[in-house]
Write a structure and sequence with these properties.
The protein has 14 helices and 14 strands. It is of the alpha/beta class. The longest helix has 20 residues, at 134-153. Bound molecules: flavin mononucleotide (FMN) and iron/sulfur cluster. Flavin mononucleotide (FMN) binds at residues 21-24, 55-56, 97, 162, 165, 215, 250, 261-262, 320-323, 342-345, 372-373, 376, 381. Flavin mononucleotide (FMN) is lined by residues 21-24, 55-56, 97, 162, 165, 215, 250, 261-262, 320-323, 342-345, 372-373, 376, 381.
């Protein structure tokens, strides 16, 4: 099978082409690693993936959306080292997703003012974000670079910098979020200036001690957001800057088009029931039907857009979005995508690769019900359709 062959991503040699993409686990406590979080990732490692991605670590306190979310700081380092040691012991590389939620960070969770490219009202934050000034820009750039250095010092092999889903760096790229009048707003070149600056700082901080890639939006998925042609141009600039070793391609905007980035069923009732804050619960009831516009699930739905990036770029690409079946996986590698980034397929079947190799499964059994997202906020990400299987007698 073409996807079981080793592959190279910058300085990294990976044992095959399957990467467990970042799916917020909801299992850290006080911003620190837990045994449960480590054990959850070990399942993907034992199941045979080449690399697993520890998700959504905030680079600065005000960039958090959840109170217990991992936060990069000295206190977190011993736990992160335990994590990378455990993944390496299984022959799997360890990646970390470094992010800042910017404008839609939750001040109730972070206990800090939310910041963004422009002053904007956020229903999530229930208030206005503060437009970043020069000091904020310098500080957050340093925070990304410091977080990258800490991650590499604790053994991470891959650094995924979030430039998608409407997180801070994607907010800079998105005209709807970025209404700045200075050198960081307006033209695409200006909107890309800050994300490019941050990625260069990350590269300077770690050199080639780890592979670096952006989780980059191809487009934001709504009128007024970043378009596909713009996304391709941003990717070209990042490639020319020499700051990245590859790309993970995604799309959509957490607050505007959340289902565009996920596809599948909308577990609306469960989501509303889960929200503890009554103001947000009411907001969800009123706004959910317009924001949670459904997008029916399609196998590898991002593939047609990703092909445009494949034509425009030389660096390796991780194809993402609804990859489930052996045929899709093999086809994507054969047509020139170097890696497959998979989320729900592996949450449902962490040992998918091994089972495919043994001829037991042709694809993941994930039904795209998206209830794992509800579980993430409730008690930790898990597949509700997965029942522990008895060990063979
Ligand atoms: C439970 C859950 C949590 C997620 N958390 C994150 C996250 O923290 N960061 C991120 O970039 N994407 C997150 N995603 C999106 C996935 O990384 C991925 O982009 C999306 O699920 C599409 O891939 P898939 O069809 O293989 O699941 C999450 C998805 C799920 C299901
Ligand atoms: S809960 Fe399980 S079946 Fe449903 S989307 Fe998540 S992984 Fe797939």
């Amino acid at each position: 099978m073409s996807f079981t062959r080793p592959g190279r991503l910058g300085p990294l040699e990976l044992r095959n082409r399957v990467v467990k993409c970042g799916t917020n686990e909801g299992m850290s406590r006080d911003g620190l690693m837990t045994d449960r979080l480590l054990a959850w990732h070990r399942e993907f490692a034992v199941g045979g993936v080449a690399m697993t991605t520890l998700s959504y670590c905030a680079v600065a306190p005000e960039g958090r959306t959840f109170r217990h979310q991992l936060l990069m700081r000295d206190e977190a380092l011993p736990g992160l080292r335990r994590f990378t040691d455990a993944m390496h012991a299984e022959g799997t590389a360890a990646a970390i997703q470094l992010a800042h939620a910017g404008w839609f960070a939750n001040p109730h969770a972070s206990r800090a003012k939310n910041i963004g490219p422009s002053r904007t009202f956020s229903a999530y934050a229930q208030g206005f974000s503060q437009a970043m000034d020069e000091n904020d820009l310098d500080r957050v750039e340093r925070a990304f670079a410091d977080a990258a250095r800490m991650a590499v010092d604790t053994g991470f092999d891959g650094l995924e910098i979030h430039l998608g889903h409407g997180y801070l760096l994607s907010q800079f790229l998105c005209p709807w979020n970025n209404r700045r009048k200075d050198q960081y707003g307006g033209s695409l070149e200006n909107r890309a200036r800050y994300p490019r600056r941050v990625l260069r700082a990350v590269r300077e901080a770690v050199g080639d001690r780890a592979a670096i890639w952006p989780k980059l939006n191809m487009d934001d998925g709504f009128g007024g957001g970043m378009t596909l042609d713009e996304g391709i141009q941003v990717a070209r600039w990042l490639e020319a800057d020499g700051s990245v070793d590859g790309f993970q391609l995604t799309g959509g905007h957490t607050t505007k088009t959340p289902m565009y980035l996920m596809r599948g069923d909308v577990p609306m009732g469960e989501m509303i029931a889960n929200e503890k804050n009554w103001v947000r619960r009411l907001g969800m009831r009123l706004l959910a039907p317009s924001i949670l516009k459904p997008y029916p699930f399609e196998e590898a739905w991002f593939l047609p857009k990703a092909r445009r990036f494949r034509e425009a770029l030389r660096l390796p690409i991780m194809l993402l979005g609804g990859i489930n079946d052996r045929t899709t996986m093999a086809g994507a590698i054969e047509e020139g995508f170097e890696f497959l980034a998979m989320g729900r397929a592996l949450i449902r079947d962490p040992d998918l690769l091994q089972r495919m190799q043994r001829g037991e499964l042709e694809g993941s059994r994930c039904s795209h019900c998206n209830k794992c997202v509800v579980e993430m906020e409730r008690s930790g990400t898990r597949c509700v359709e997965r029942v522990p299987e008895a060990a063979p007698a």
